Amino acid sequence: MKQTGRRTFLRLIAGAAVSGSVLDGLLQKTGSHPLGPASAPTAEGLKLGLISDLNGSYGSTNYSSAVERGVTLLRQQEADLVLCAGDMVAGQKRSLTNSQLEAMWAGFEQSVRAPLEKAGIALIPAIGNHDGSSQQHQGRWIYGRERHQADLFWRKHRGDLQSGLIDSERFPFQYVWKRPGLFVVVIDASSANVDSSQRQWIEKALNSTHRHPDDLCLVMGHLPLTAVSEGRARAGECIANPQGLAGLLRRAGVDLVISGHHHAWYPSESLGLRLLSLGAMGSGPRRIIGSGVISPPSLTLLEWSRASELISEMTIDLNTMQPMTHHDQPAQVSVPGFPVARRRSLQWQRASPI
Ligand SMILES: [Fe+2]
Question: Is the distance from CB of 173 to CB of 132 less than 8 angstroms?
Answer without folding.
Answer: yes
